[in-house]
Amino acid sequence: MLPTPDTSHVAYERIYEPAEDSFLLLDTFSSVSETAFLQNRFGDGYVPLVVEVGPGSGVVIAFVNAQAQALFGSRNVLTAAVDVNGYACKATNETARKAALENATTHGRYLGALQGDLVTPIKDQSVDVLIFNPPYVPTPELPKQPGQADLPHLGTKPTFDDDSYMLSLSYAGGKDGMETTDRLIDSLPQVLSSRGCAYILLCAQNKPEEVKDRIRAFGENWKVETVGSSGKQAGWEKLQIVRIWVG
Q: What is the model's pLDDT at position 232?
Protein backbone atom coordinates (compact mmCIF):
# COMPACT_ATOMS: atom_id res chain seq x y z
CA MET A 1 0.00 0.00 0.00
CA LEU A 2 1.42 3.38 -1.00
CA PRO A 3 1.88 5.84 1.88
CA THR A 4 -0.41 8.83 2.39
CA PRO A 5 1.43 12.17 2.52
CA ASP A 6 1.82 13.87 5.87
CA THR A 7 -0.46 16.91 6.33
CA SER A 8 0.21 17.55 10.01
CA HIS A 9 1.40 21.09 9.19
CA VAL A 10 -1.93 22.14 7.63
CA ALA A 11 -4.19 24.71 9.35
CA TYR A 12 -7.53 22.96 9.03
CA GLU A 13 -9.49 25.92 10.36
CA ARG A 14 -9.04 27.53 6.91
CA ILE A 15 -8.09 24.60 4.64
CA TYR A 16 -10.14 21.49 3.82
CA GLU A 17 -8.99 18.52 5.87
CA PRO A 18 -8.35 15.24 3.99
CA ALA A 19 -11.43 13.06 4.31
CA GLU A 20 -13.20 10.16 2.60
CA ASP A 21 -13.26 11.96 -0.75
CA SER A 22 -9.51 12.64 -0.65
CA PHE A 23 -8.70 9.03 0.22
CA LEU A 24 -11.02 7.73 -2.50
CA LEU A 25 -8.93 9.67 -5.02
CA LEU A 26 -5.72 8.12 -3.63
CA ASP A 27 -7.22 4.63 -3.80
CA THR A 28 -8.46 5.24 -7.35
CA PHE A 29 -5.11 6.44 -8.66
CA SER A 30 -3.28 3.49 -7.10
CA SER A 31 -5.76 0.89 -8.40
CA VAL A 32 -4.54 -1.62 -10.96
CA SER A 33 -6.98 -0.39 -13.60
CA GLU A 34 -5.97 3.28 -13.34
CA THR A 35 -2.23 2.73 -13.18
CA ALA A 36 -2.62 0.59 -16.31
CA PHE A 37 -4.64 3.36 -18.00
CA LEU A 38 -2.12 6.07 -17.10
CA GLN A 39 0.92 4.02 -18.09
CA ASN A 40 -0.64 3.05 -21.41
CA ARG A 41 -1.76 6.61 -22.21
CA PHE A 42 1.46 8.36 -21.22
CA GLY A 43 4.13 5.81 -22.08
CA ASP A 44 6.76 5.98 -24.83
CA GLY A 45 8.83 8.64 -23.07
CA TYR A 46 5.98 11.15 -22.91
CA VAL A 47 6.24 13.58 -19.95
CA PRO A 48 2.73 14.30 -18.65
CA LEU A 49 1.64 17.41 -16.79
CA VAL A 50 -0.69 16.63 -13.88
CA VAL A 51 -2.63 19.55 -12.37
CA GLU A 52 -4.92 19.42 -9.37
CA VAL A 53 -7.50 22.17 -9.16
CA GLY A 54 -8.44 23.00 -5.57
CA PRO A 55 -5.81 20.87 -3.79
CA GLY A 56 -6.63 22.12 -0.28
CA SER A 57 -4.08 20.40 1.95
CA GLY A 58 -2.24 19.07 -1.09
CA VAL A 59 -2.60 15.43 -0.05
CA VAL A 60 -3.71 14.24 -3.50
CA ILE A 61 -1.25 16.05 -5.76
CA ALA A 62 1.57 15.33 -3.28
CA PHE A 63 0.65 11.63 -3.46
CA VAL A 64 0.61 11.63 -7.26
CA ASN A 65 3.97 13.40 -7.40
CA ALA A 66 5.56 11.24 -4.70
CA GLN A 67 4.38 8.00 -6.34
CA ALA A 68 5.03 8.96 -9.97
CA GLN A 69 7.05 5.82 -10.60
CA ALA A 70 4.30 3.51 -9.36
CA LEU A 71 1.41 5.36 -11.01
CA PHE A 72 2.95 6.29 -14.37
CA GLY A 73 5.79 3.78 -14.60
CA SER A 74 8.25 6.70 -14.76
CA ARG A 75 9.54 9.56 -12.66
CA ASN A 76 9.34 11.85 -15.70
CA VAL A 77 6.08 13.42 -14.53
CA LEU A 78 5.39 17.12 -13.91
CA THR A 79 2.86 18.09 -11.25
CA ALA A 80 1.27 21.38 -10.21
CA ALA A 81 -1.82 22.80 -8.51
CA VAL A 82 -4.16 25.79 -8.58
CA ASP A 83 -6.22 27.02 -5.63
CA VAL A 84 -8.09 30.26 -4.99
CA ASN A 85 -6.99 30.07 -1.33
CA GLY A 86 -3.41 31.27 -0.90
CA TYR A 87 -3.10 29.38 2.39
CA ALA A 88 -4.00 26.18 0.54
CA CYS A 89 -1.30 26.91 -2.05
CA LYS A 90 1.27 27.33 0.72
CA ALA A 91 0.12 24.15 2.48
CA THR A 92 0.16 22.18 -0.77
CA ASN A 93 3.74 23.22 -1.48
CA GLU A 94 4.83 21.98 1.95
CA THR A 95 2.88 18.73 1.67
CA ALA A 96 4.46 18.03 -1.72
CA ARG A 97 7.93 18.91 -0.45
CA LYS A 98 7.68 16.55 2.52
CA ALA A 99 6.21 13.71 0.45
CA ALA A 100 8.98 14.00 -2.13
CA LEU A 101 11.63 13.86 0.58
CA GLU A 102 10.02 10.73 2.01
CA ASN A 103 9.88 9.09 -1.43
CA ALA A 104 13.23 10.12 -2.83
CA THR A 105 13.50 7.34 -5.42
CA THR A 106 9.96 7.49 -6.84
CA HIS A 107 8.82 11.12 -7.00
CA GLY A 108 8.25 13.25 -10.09
CA ARG A 109 8.92 16.98 -10.42
CA TYR A 110 6.57 19.25 -8.49
CA LEU A 111 6.36 22.70 -10.09
CA GLY A 112 4.36 24.48 -7.38
CA ALA A 113 0.88 25.80 -6.62
CA LEU A 114 -0.62 28.86 -8.30
CA GLN A 115 -3.26 31.04 -6.71
CA GLY A 116 -6.15 31.47 -9.12
CA ASP A 117 -9.70 30.60 -10.11
CA LEU A 118 -10.00 27.05 -11.47
CA VAL A 119 -7.91 26.72 -14.66
CA THR A 120 -7.50 30.43 -15.45
CA PRO A 121 -3.70 30.40 -14.79
CA ILE A 122 -3.18 27.35 -17.02
CA LYS A 123 -2.17 27.47 -20.68
CA ASP A 124 -4.72 26.05 -23.13
CA GLN A 125 -4.32 22.41 -24.23
CA SER A 126 -1.50 21.87 -21.73
CA VAL A 127 -2.94 19.60 -19.03
CA ASP A 128 -2.56 15.84 -19.45
CA VAL A 129 -4.19 14.78 -16.17
CA LEU A 130 -6.56 17.15 -14.39
CA ILE A 131 -7.74 16.27 -10.87
CA PHE A 132 -10.70 18.00 -9.22
CA ASN A 133 -12.20 17.29 -5.81
CA PRO A 134 -14.76 20.10 -6.01
CA PRO A 135 -16.96 21.90 -3.53
CA TYR A 136 -19.78 19.39 -4.11
CA VAL A 137 -22.14 19.95 -1.17
CA PRO A 138 -25.51 21.38 -2.33
CA THR A 139 -26.05 24.79 -0.71
CA PRO A 140 -28.64 27.56 -1.20
CA GLU A 141 -25.99 29.71 -2.84
CA LEU A 142 -22.29 29.85 -3.60
CA PRO A 143 -19.92 31.88 -1.46
CA LYS A 144 -18.85 35.04 -3.21
CA GLN A 145 -16.03 34.27 -5.63
CA PRO A 146 -13.08 36.05 -4.08
CA GLY A 147 -11.11 38.94 -5.42
CA GLN A 148 -7.82 40.05 -3.91
CA ALA A 149 -9.65 42.29 -1.44
CA ASP A 150 -11.69 39.35 -0.12
CA LEU A 151 -8.74 37.20 0.94
CA PRO A 152 -6.46 37.93 3.89
CA HIS A 153 -2.82 38.62 3.11
CA LEU A 154 -0.62 35.62 3.87
CA GLY A 155 1.46 37.78 6.19
CA THR A 156 -1.49 38.61 8.47
CA LYS A 157 -3.41 36.42 10.89
CA PRO A 158 -6.86 35.58 9.48
CA THR A 159 -9.94 36.41 11.54
CA PHE A 160 -12.57 33.82 12.39
CA ASP A 161 -14.73 35.21 9.57
CA ASP A 162 -11.78 34.92 7.16
CA ASP A 163 -11.30 31.28 8.14
CA SER A 164 -15.01 30.49 7.77
CA TYR A 165 -15.12 32.11 4.35
CA MET A 166 -12.02 30.30 3.05
CA LEU A 167 -13.32 26.97 4.32
CA SER A 168 -16.72 27.55 2.70
CA LEU A 169 -15.00 27.88 -0.68
CA SER A 170 -13.87 24.26 -0.33
CA TYR A 171 -17.26 22.64 0.24
CA ALA A 172 -20.20 24.90 -0.78
CA GLY A 173 -21.29 23.88 -4.28
CA GLY A 174 -24.51 25.85 -4.82
CA LYS A 175 -27.43 24.28 -6.72
CA ASP A 176 -27.08 20.47 -6.81
CA GLY A 177 -23.53 21.07 -5.53
CA MET A 178 -22.55 21.57 -9.17
CA GLU A 179 -22.12 25.30 -9.84
CA THR A 180 -18.33 25.27 -9.55
CA THR A 181 -17.99 21.82 -11.11
CA ASP A 182 -20.08 22.97 -14.09
CA ARG A 183 -17.58 25.75 -14.75
CA LEU A 184 -14.68 23.33 -14.59
CA ILE A 185 -16.37 20.84 -16.93
CA ASP A 186 -17.02 23.64 -19.43
CA SER A 187 -13.27 24.33 -19.50
CA LEU A 188 -12.16 20.76 -20.26
CA PRO A 189 -12.12 21.04 -24.08
CA GLN A 190 -10.01 24.17 -23.70
CA VAL A 191 -7.49 23.04 -21.09
CA LEU A 192 -6.87 19.34 -21.78
CA SER A 193 -4.08 18.24 -24.13
CA SER A 194 -4.66 15.85 -27.02
CA ARG A 195 -3.89 12.99 -24.63
CA GLY A 196 -5.61 14.69 -21.72
CA CYS A 197 -7.95 13.16 -19.17
CA ALA A 198 -9.70 14.42 -16.06
CA TYR A 199 -10.64 12.81 -12.76
CA ILE A 200 -13.57 14.52 -11.05
CA LEU A 201 -15.23 13.55 -7.78
CA LEU A 202 -19.03 13.61 -7.58
CA CYS A 203 -21.59 12.77 -4.91
CA ALA A 204 -25.04 11.29 -5.47
CA GLN A 205 -26.74 14.69 -5.11
CA ASN A 206 -24.67 15.98 -8.06
CA LYS A 207 -26.73 13.71 -10.38
CA PRO A 208 -23.68 11.97 -11.83
CA GLU A 209 -25.52 10.23 -14.67
CA GLU A 210 -26.70 13.60 -15.96
CA VAL A 211 -23.13 14.88 -15.68
CA LYS A 212 -21.91 11.94 -17.78
CA ASP A 213 -24.53 12.57 -20.45
CA ARG A 214 -23.47 16.20 -20.62
CA ILE A 215 -19.83 15.24 -21.15
CA ARG A 216 -20.71 12.73 -23.88
CA ALA A 217 -22.56 15.55 -25.62
CA PHE A 218 -19.18 17.27 -26.18
CA GLY A 219 -18.73 14.91 -29.13
CA GLU A 220 -18.55 11.25 -30.10
CA ASN A 221 -14.89 10.98 -29.09
CA TRP A 222 -15.53 12.09 -25.50
CA LYS A 223 -15.65 9.21 -23.02
CA VAL A 224 -16.59 9.10 -19.34
CA GLU A 225 -16.88 6.29 -16.82
CA THR A 226 -16.90 5.75 -13.08
CA VAL A 227 -13.49 4.44 -11.98
CA GLY A 228 -13.80 4.74 -8.20
CA SER A 229 -16.66 4.52 -5.72
CA SER A 230 -17.11 4.71 -1.96
CA GLY A 231 -19.98 2.20 -2.13
CA LYS A 232 -23.74 2.47 -2.22
CA GLN A 233 -26.32 3.88 0.16
CA ALA A 234 -29.98 3.19 -0.64
CA GLY A 235 -28.88 2.18 -4.15
CA TRP A 236 -26.82 5.33 -4.80
CA GLU A 237 -23.05 5.62 -4.87
CA LYS A 238 -22.31 8.05 -2.08
CA LEU A 239 -19.13 9.29 -3.76
CA GLN A 240 -17.64 8.41 -7.10
CA ILE A 241 -14.69 9.34 -9.26
CA VAL A 242 -15.39 9.77 -12.95
CA ARG A 243 -12.62 9.65 -15.52
CA ILE A 244 -13.15 11.82 -18.61
CA TRP A 245 -11.02 11.44 -21.73
CA VAL A 246 -11.03 11.70 -25.50
CA GLY A 247 -10.92 8.24 -27.05
A: 60
